[in-house]
Amino acid sequence: MTRGLFVRVLLVCVLALSACDRAAPLLTVKAVAAGVPSLAPFFDESNGLGRDARVRSRDVRAGLQRGDTPGLYGGSRQPTICDVGKLERFLTDPANERKAAAWARALEITTEGIPAYLDRLTPVLLRHDTLVKNHDYKKEKAVPFDSLLQAGIALLVDAQGQPAVKCSCGNPLRPFEGDTSRISVEFEDGNEKWKGYDRASVVSVRPASRKVERLALVDVEEPARGINRPVGTAGEDDTVFDAERRRAVPDVVGATFGQAAGRLTGQGLAVGYAGEGLPSDGALVTGSNPAAGAQLAFGEYVTLTVAESRSGSPRTTPGPPDLPVPSSSATAPSSPGPPGSSGTPSEPPPSSEEPPSSTPPPSSKDPATTSPPPTSTPPPTITSAPPPSTTAPPTTSSDPPPPGTPPSTTTSTAPTSSATT
Questions:
Q1: Which secondary structure element, helix H or strand E, spans residue 216, and what is its range?
Q2: Using an 8 Å Cβ cutoff, are 206 and 176 in contact?
Q3: Cα separation, 331 vs 18, whole angstroms
Q4: Is pTM, for the whole model, over 0.70?
Protein backbone atom coordinates (compact mmCIF):
# COMPACT_ATOMS: atom_id res chain seq x y z
CA MET A 1 0.00 0.00 0.00
CA THR A 2 1.42 3.38 -0.98
CA ARG A 3 1.92 6.06 1.65
CA GLY A 4 -0.80 8.27 0.12
CA LEU A 5 -3.36 5.47 0.08
CA PHE A 6 -2.53 4.55 3.67
CA VAL A 7 -3.09 8.13 4.82
CA ARG A 8 -6.46 8.30 3.03
CA VAL A 9 -7.63 5.01 4.58
CA LEU A 10 -6.56 6.18 8.04
CA LEU A 11 -8.44 9.45 7.60
CA VAL A 12 -11.61 7.62 6.57
CA CYS A 13 -11.40 5.42 9.69
CA VAL A 14 -10.94 8.45 11.97
CA LEU A 15 -13.90 10.25 10.43
CA ALA A 16 -16.07 7.13 10.74
CA LEU A 17 -15.22 6.74 14.42
CA SER A 18 -15.91 10.42 15.06
CA ALA A 19 -19.31 10.12 13.38
CA CYS A 20 -20.18 7.10 15.56
CA ASP A 21 -19.19 9.02 18.69
CA ARG A 22 -21.37 11.98 17.71
CA ALA A 23 -24.27 9.65 17.06
CA ALA A 24 -24.08 8.05 20.51
CA PRO A 25 -27.20 9.18 22.41
CA LEU A 26 -26.95 11.25 25.60
CA LEU A 27 -28.40 9.78 28.78
CA THR A 28 -31.49 11.67 29.94
CA VAL A 29 -31.26 12.76 33.57
CA LYS A 30 -34.01 14.47 35.59
CA ALA A 31 -32.99 17.48 37.63
CA VAL A 32 -34.00 17.53 41.31
CA ALA A 33 -33.70 20.98 42.87
CA ALA A 34 -33.17 21.60 46.57
CA GLY A 35 -36.42 22.20 48.44
CA VAL A 36 -38.70 21.00 45.61
CA PRO A 37 -41.06 18.17 46.72
CA SER A 38 -40.98 14.85 44.89
CA LEU A 39 -44.04 13.98 42.79
CA ALA A 40 -43.92 10.33 43.89
CA PRO A 41 -42.28 10.15 47.34
CA PHE A 42 -42.02 7.18 49.67
CA PHE A 43 -42.53 9.52 52.64
CA ASP A 44 -44.88 12.52 52.98
CA GLU A 45 -42.51 15.50 52.83
CA SER A 46 -44.85 17.71 54.83
CA ASN A 47 -43.97 15.65 57.93
CA GLY A 48 -40.50 17.14 58.15
CA LEU A 49 -38.29 14.13 57.55
CA GLY A 50 -35.39 16.23 56.22
CA ARG A 51 -34.36 19.77 55.36
CA ASP A 52 -32.26 20.94 52.42
CA ALA A 53 -29.93 23.93 52.59
CA ARG A 54 -28.70 26.71 50.31
CA VAL A 55 -25.30 25.59 49.03
CA ARG A 56 -23.49 26.80 45.91
CA SER A 57 -22.08 23.86 43.96
CA ARG A 58 -18.29 23.58 43.95
CA ASP A 59 -16.39 23.47 40.65
CA VAL A 60 -14.75 20.17 39.70
CA ARG A 61 -12.81 18.84 36.72
CA ALA A 62 -13.44 15.10 37.17
CA GLY A 63 -16.82 13.43 37.38
CA LEU A 64 -15.91 10.51 39.66
CA GLN A 65 -15.41 11.01 43.39
CA ARG A 66 -14.70 8.46 46.13
CA GLY A 67 -17.13 8.37 49.02
CA ASP A 68 -14.34 8.96 51.55
CA THR A 69 -12.90 12.03 49.76
CA PRO A 70 -12.16 14.72 52.39
CA GLY A 71 -14.62 17.60 52.02
CA LEU A 72 -16.83 15.84 49.47
CA TYR A 73 -19.87 16.42 51.71
CA GLY A 74 -20.98 19.23 53.97
CA GLY A 75 -22.34 19.39 57.47
CA SER A 76 -24.27 21.84 59.61
CA ARG A 77 -24.77 22.81 63.24
CA GLN A 78 -28.45 21.94 62.78
CA PRO A 79 -29.10 18.81 64.88
CA THR A 80 -31.68 17.21 62.59
CA ILE A 81 -31.10 17.79 58.88
CA CYS A 82 -32.44 14.25 58.49
CA ASP A 83 -34.67 12.55 61.07
CA VAL A 84 -33.53 8.94 60.82
CA GLY A 85 -35.68 7.84 63.76
CA LYS A 86 -38.83 9.12 62.07
CA LEU A 87 -37.95 7.30 58.84
CA GLU A 88 -37.34 4.07 60.75
CA ARG A 89 -40.69 4.27 62.55
CA PHE A 90 -42.44 4.87 59.24
CA LEU A 91 -40.80 1.94 57.44
CA THR A 92 -41.34 -0.49 60.32
CA ASP A 93 -45.01 0.43 60.77
CA PRO A 94 -47.15 -2.55 59.58
CA ALA A 95 -49.43 -0.07 57.81
CA ASN A 96 -46.53 0.77 55.45
CA GLU A 97 -45.47 -2.82 54.80
CA ARG A 98 -45.70 -2.59 51.01
CA LYS A 99 -43.71 0.64 50.86
CA ALA A 100 -41.09 -0.86 53.14
CA ALA A 101 -40.77 -3.93 50.94
CA ALA A 102 -40.28 -1.82 47.80
CA TRP A 103 -37.81 0.46 49.63
CA ALA A 104 -35.75 -2.50 50.84
CA ARG A 105 -35.66 -4.16 47.41
CA ALA A 106 -34.30 -0.96 45.84
CA LEU A 107 -31.41 -0.98 48.32
CA GLU A 108 -30.91 -4.75 48.06
CA ILE A 109 -31.66 -5.45 51.73
CA THR A 110 -34.46 -7.27 53.54
CA THR A 111 -37.34 -5.57 55.30
CA GLU A 112 -36.13 -7.16 58.55
CA GLY A 113 -32.75 -5.53 57.99
CA ILE A 114 -34.12 -1.98 57.64
CA PRO A 115 -33.48 -0.85 61.27
CA ALA A 116 -29.90 -2.11 61.28
CA TYR A 117 -29.28 -0.56 57.85
CA LEU A 118 -30.60 2.85 58.94
CA ASP A 119 -28.44 2.78 62.07
CA ARG A 120 -25.33 2.75 59.87
CA LEU A 121 -26.34 5.77 57.76
CA THR A 122 -25.02 9.31 58.26
CA PRO A 123 -26.76 12.60 57.36
CA VAL A 124 -24.79 15.01 55.17
CA LEU A 125 -25.41 17.88 52.74
CA LEU A 126 -24.29 17.76 49.11
CA ARG A 127 -21.54 20.24 48.16
CA HIS A 128 -21.68 19.30 44.47
CA ASP A 129 -24.49 18.74 41.97
CA THR A 130 -24.51 14.95 42.18
CA LEU A 131 -25.72 12.21 39.82
CA VAL A 132 -27.56 9.25 41.36
CA LYS A 133 -30.03 6.53 40.43
CA ASN A 134 -33.13 7.79 42.22
CA HIS A 135 -36.40 5.93 42.88
CA ASP A 136 -40.03 7.06 42.84
CA TYR A 137 -42.80 5.10 44.54
CA LYS A 138 -45.40 4.17 41.90
CA LYS A 139 -47.96 1.35 41.89
CA GLU A 140 -46.39 -0.18 45.01
CA LYS A 141 -42.98 -0.42 43.35
CA ALA A 142 -39.70 1.49 43.51
CA VAL A 143 -39.30 2.87 39.99
CA PRO A 144 -35.66 3.80 39.19
CA PHE A 145 -34.62 6.84 37.19
CA ASP A 146 -31.38 8.77 36.73
CA SER A 147 -31.39 12.15 38.42
CA LEU A 148 -29.12 15.08 39.20
CA LEU A 149 -29.44 16.27 42.80
CA GLN A 150 -28.65 19.93 43.43
CA ALA A 151 -25.96 20.90 45.93
CA GLY A 152 -27.56 21.57 49.32
CA ILE A 153 -29.87 18.55 49.25
CA ALA A 154 -29.77 16.54 52.49
CA LEU A 155 -28.84 12.87 52.13
CA LEU A 156 -28.11 9.80 54.18
CA VAL A 157 -24.87 8.12 53.07
CA ASP A 158 -23.70 4.63 53.94
CA ALA A 159 -20.50 3.46 55.63
CA GLN A 160 -18.59 3.79 52.34
CA GLY A 161 -19.77 7.34 51.68
CA GLN A 162 -22.28 6.29 49.00
CA PRO A 163 -25.59 8.24 48.80
CA ALA A 164 -28.35 5.95 50.07
CA VAL A 165 -31.49 7.99 50.90
CA LYS A 166 -32.82 11.43 49.95
CA CYS A 167 -33.80 12.84 53.32
CA SER A 168 -36.84 14.99 52.53
CA CYS A 169 -38.86 12.21 50.86
CA GLY A 170 -37.14 9.01 51.99
CA ASN A 171 -36.57 7.87 48.39
CA PRO A 172 -33.78 5.26 48.12
CA LEU A 173 -30.66 6.06 46.05
CA ARG A 174 -28.17 3.88 44.21
CA PRO A 175 -24.94 4.70 42.29
CA PHE A 176 -25.25 6.42 38.93
CA GLU A 177 -24.06 4.00 36.23
CA GLY A 178 -23.70 6.26 33.21
CA ASP A 179 -20.96 8.45 31.76
CA THR A 180 -20.96 11.76 33.63
CA SER A 181 -19.77 13.56 30.48
CA ARG A 182 -22.65 12.33 28.29
CA ILE A 183 -25.85 13.42 29.99
CA SER A 184 -28.83 15.55 29.01
CA VAL A 185 -30.43 17.14 32.07
CA GLU A 186 -34.19 17.82 32.02
CA PHE A 187 -35.43 20.68 34.20
CA GLU A 188 -39.16 20.20 34.66
CA ASP A 189 -41.96 19.61 37.20
CA GLY A 190 -40.97 22.68 39.19
CA ASN A 191 -37.28 21.83 39.14
CA GLU A 192 -36.02 24.93 37.33
CA LYS A 193 -32.39 25.36 36.34
CA TRP A 194 -30.61 26.67 39.40
CA LYS A 195 -28.07 29.46 39.59
CA GLY A 196 -24.53 28.19 39.17
CA TYR A 197 -25.50 24.98 37.36
CA ASP A 198 -22.70 23.73 35.11
CA ARG A 199 -23.00 20.34 33.42
CA ALA A 200 -19.21 20.05 33.36
CA SER A 201 -19.06 20.22 37.17
CA VAL A 202 -21.47 17.43 38.13
CA VAL A 203 -20.09 14.46 40.04
CA SER A 204 -20.91 10.81 40.58
CA VAL A 205 -19.89 9.13 43.83
CA ARG A 206 -18.29 5.71 43.94
CA PRO A 207 -18.20 3.84 47.27
CA ALA A 208 -14.96 3.95 49.21
CA SER A 209 -13.25 0.61 48.88
CA ARG A 210 -13.75 -0.16 52.57
CA LYS A 211 -15.94 1.04 55.42
CA VAL A 212 -14.88 4.26 57.11
CA GLU A 213 -15.29 5.18 60.76
CA ARG A 214 -15.93 8.89 60.30
CA LEU A 215 -16.53 11.39 57.52
CA ALA A 216 -14.59 14.65 57.18
CA LEU A 217 -17.13 17.34 56.27
CA VAL A 218 -17.07 21.09 55.67
CA ASP A 219 -19.54 23.32 57.54
CA VAL A 220 -21.72 24.79 54.76
CA GLU A 221 -22.39 27.88 56.90
CA GLU A 222 -18.81 28.40 58.11
CA PRO A 223 -16.47 27.02 55.41
CA ALA A 224 -13.37 27.52 57.57
CA ARG A 225 -14.80 25.01 60.04
CA GLY A 226 -14.34 21.31 59.38
CA ILE A 227 -16.46 18.61 60.99
CA ASN A 228 -15.47 15.07 61.91
CA ARG A 229 -18.71 13.06 62.01
CA PRO A 230 -18.63 9.42 63.17
CA VAL A 231 -20.46 7.13 60.75
CA GLY A 232 -23.95 6.26 61.99
CA THR A 233 -24.39 9.47 64.01
CA ALA A 234 -26.51 12.53 63.21
CA GLY A 235 -24.26 15.30 64.53
CA GLU A 236 -24.53 14.77 68.28
CA ASP A 237 -20.96 13.43 68.43
CA ASP A 238 -19.34 15.84 65.95
CA THR A 239 -15.91 17.28 66.61
CA VAL A 240 -14.41 20.20 64.73
CA PHE A 241 -11.11 21.16 63.12
CA ASP A 242 -9.57 24.07 61.24
CA ALA A 243 -10.32 23.48 57.55
CA GLU A 244 -8.03 26.35 56.52
CA ARG A 245 -4.89 24.99 58.17
CA ARG A 246 -2.32 24.11 55.52
CA ARG A 247 -1.08 20.52 55.45
CA ALA A 248 2.00 19.11 53.76
CA VAL A 249 1.77 16.73 50.81
CA PRO A 250 3.40 13.44 51.94
CA ASP A 251 6.10 11.74 49.89
CA VAL A 252 4.29 9.00 47.97
CA VAL A 253 6.75 8.38 45.11
CA GLY A 254 7.72 4.71 45.13
CA ALA A 255 4.58 3.68 47.04
CA THR A 256 1.74 1.76 45.46
CA PHE A 257 -1.31 3.69 44.34
CA GLY A 258 -3.33 2.19 47.22
CA GLN A 259 -0.73 3.20 49.80
CA ALA A 260 -0.45 6.69 48.36
CA ALA A 261 -4.23 7.14 48.49
CA GLY A 262 -4.22 6.17 52.15
CA ARG A 263 -1.48 8.63 53.05
CA LEU A 264 -3.15 11.49 51.22
CA THR A 265 -6.62 11.00 52.67
CA GLY A 266 -5.01 10.57 56.10
CA GLN A 267 -3.65 14.09 55.68
CA GLY A 268 -7.06 15.46 54.70
CA LEU A 269 -6.08 15.65 51.01
CA ALA A 270 -7.88 14.12 48.04
CA VAL A 271 -6.43 11.74 45.43
CA GLY A 272 -6.35 13.04 41.88
CA TYR A 273 -6.73 10.79 38.84
CA ALA A 274 -8.46 10.90 35.45
CA GLY A 275 -8.58 9.22 32.06
CA GLU A 276 -9.79 5.84 30.90
CA GLY A 277 -10.10 3.63 33.95
CA LEU A 278 -8.03 3.81 37.12
CA PRO A 279 -4.63 2.50 38.21
CA SER A 280 -4.66 -0.73 40.18
CA ASP A 281 -3.80 -0.54 43.87
CA GLY A 282 -0.41 -2.12 43.11
CA ALA A 283 0.58 0.38 40.40
CA LEU A 284 3.80 2.21 41.30
CA VAL A 285 3.52 5.94 41.92
CA THR A 286 6.25 7.78 40.01
CA GLY A 287 5.25 11.37 40.77
CA SER A 288 2.77 13.70 42.42
CA ASN A 289 1.57 17.19 41.57
CA PRO A 290 2.07 19.15 43.75
CA ALA A 291 5.23 17.42 44.93
CA ALA A 292 5.99 16.26 48.47
CA GLY A 293 6.23 19.11 50.95
CA ALA A 294 3.80 21.44 49.18
CA GLN A 295 1.28 23.05 51.52
CA LEU A 296 -2.40 22.60 50.63
CA ALA A 297 -5.72 23.35 52.31
CA PHE A 298 -8.07 20.64 53.51
CA GLY A 299 -9.73 18.73 50.66
CA GLU A 300 -7.42 19.93 47.88
CA TYR A 301 -6.32 17.38 45.30
CA VAL A 302 -2.93 15.81 44.62
CA THR A 303 -2.58 14.37 41.10
CA LEU A 304 -0.63 11.11 40.97
CA THR A 305 1.40 9.69 38.09
CA VAL A 306 1.87 5.93 37.88
CA ALA A 307 4.15 3.62 35.88
CA GLU A 308 2.51 1.49 33.20
CA SER A 309 3.64 -1.71 31.57
CA ARG A 310 4.23 -2.18 27.85
CA SER A 311 0.63 -3.38 27.41
CA GLY A 312 -0.65 -0.08 28.75
CA SER A 313 -2.13 -1.50 31.95
CA PRO A 314 -0.69 -0.31 35.28
CA ARG A 315 2.26 -2.37 36.47
CA THR A 316 1.58 -3.99 39.80
CA THR A 317 3.58 -5.15 42.77
CA PRO A 318 2.58 -7.65 45.46
CA GLY A 319 -0.21 -6.01 47.38
CA PRO A 320 -3.94 -5.97 48.03
CA PRO A 321 -6.29 -7.48 45.46
CA ASP A 322 -8.52 -5.25 43.39
CA LEU A 323 -12.11 -5.03 44.55
CA PRO A 324 -14.97 -5.48 42.08
CA VAL A 325 -15.88 -2.27 40.28
CA PRO A 326 -19.55 -1.31 39.78
CA SER A 327 -20.76 -1.72 36.22
CA SER A 328 -20.31 1.67 34.63
CA SER A 329 -18.62 3.44 31.79
CA ALA A 330 -16.72 5.33 34.50
CA THR A 331 -14.45 3.06 36.47
CA ALA A 332 -14.56 3.22 40.27
CA PRO A 333 -11.59 3.67 42.59
CA SER A 334 -9.78 0.58 43.71
CA SER A 335 -9.06 -0.47 47.28
CA PRO A 336 -6.50 1.66 49.15
CA GLY A 337 -5.18 -1.12 51.31
CA PRO A 338 -4.96 -4.80 52.12
CA PRO A 339 -7.70 -6.80 53.75
CA GLY A 340 -7.55 -6.87 57.51
CA SER A 341 -6.17 -3.35 57.84
CA SER A 342 -7.34 -1.37 60.82
CA GLY A 343 -8.25 1.52 58.56
CA THR A 344 -6.13 3.98 60.56
CA PRO A 345 -4.38 6.52 58.35
CA SER A 346 -0.68 6.15 57.93
CA GLU A 347 0.27 9.77 58.29
CA PRO A 348 -2.23 11.88 60.25
CA PRO A 349 -1.98 15.67 60.08
CA PRO A 350 0.71 17.13 62.36
CA SER A 351 -0.74 18.19 65.67
CA SER A 352 0.42 18.69 69.22
CA GLU A 353 -2.98 17.69 70.55
CA GLU A 354 -4.18 14.23 71.37
CA PRO A 355 -5.82 12.64 68.27
CA PRO A 356 -9.49 11.71 68.38
CA SER A 357 -10.51 8.17 69.16
CA SER A 358 -10.72 5.85 66.16
CA THR A 359 -13.83 4.19 67.57
CA PRO A 360 -17.02 6.16 66.96
CA PRO A 361 -19.22 6.75 70.02
CA PRO A 362 -22.64 5.09 70.21
CA SER A 363 -25.19 6.49 67.76
CA SER A 364 -28.25 8.36 68.93
CA LYS A 365 -31.11 8.28 66.49
CA ASP A 366 -33.76 9.90 68.74
CA PRO A 367 -35.11 12.81 66.72
CA ALA A 368 -36.00 14.61 69.91
CA THR A 369 -32.38 14.73 71.01
CA THR A 370 -30.75 18.10 70.53
CA SER A 371 -27.08 17.93 69.64
CA PRO A 372 -24.67 19.65 72.04
CA PRO A 373 -22.31 22.20 70.51
CA PRO A 374 -19.32 20.52 68.83
CA THR A 375 -16.10 20.55 70.77
CA SER A 376 -12.78 21.51 69.30
CA THR A 377 -10.52 18.65 68.28
CA PRO A 378 -7.56 18.20 65.96
CA PRO A 379 -7.81 18.18 62.16
CA PRO A 380 -9.66 15.31 60.46
CA THR A 381 -8.57 11.76 60.42
CA ILE A 382 -9.89 9.80 57.46
CA THR A 383 -9.94 6.21 58.55
CA SER A 384 -10.70 4.32 55.38
CA ALA A 385 -7.09 3.81 54.31
CA PRO A 386 -4.55 1.27 55.61
CA PRO A 387 -1.16 2.03 57.13
CA PRO A 388 1.70 2.06 54.66
CA SER A 389 3.90 -0.93 54.16
CA THR A 390 7.06 -0.85 56.23
CA THR A 391 9.01 -1.60 53.09
CA ALA A 392 8.32 0.79 50.23
CA PRO A 393 7.74 -0.84 46.84
CA PRO A 394 10.59 -0.53 44.39
CA THR A 395 10.72 2.66 42.38
CA THR A 396 10.67 2.75 38.62
CA SER A 397 14.42 3.21 38.47
CA SER A 398 15.06 -0.03 40.37
CA ASP A 399 12.51 -2.09 38.51
CA PRO A 400 13.36 -1.68 34.81
CA PRO A 401 10.98 -2.93 32.15
CA PRO A 402 11.91 -5.60 29.61
CA PRO A 403 14.77 -4.56 27.33
CA GLY A 404 13.73 -2.38 24.47
CA THR A 405 10.36 -1.54 25.94
CA PRO A 406 10.77 1.25 28.50
CA PRO A 407 7.67 1.93 30.57
CA SER A 408 5.62 4.98 29.80
CA THR A 409 3.97 7.17 32.40
CA THR A 410 0.41 8.30 32.34
CA THR A 411 -0.49 11.39 34.31
CA SER A 412 -3.87 11.39 35.97
CA THR A 413 -5.52 14.74 36.40
CA ALA A 414 -8.23 15.84 38.72
CA PRO A 415 -9.66 18.98 40.21
CA THR A 416 -8.45 21.17 42.96
CA SER A 417 -11.38 21.31 45.32
CA SER A 418 -11.72 24.24 47.67
CA ALA A 419 -12.76 23.62 51.25
CA THR A 420 -15.09 26.58 51.20
CA THR A 421 -18.70 26.64 50.11
A1: strand 214-219
A2: no
A3: 23
A4: no
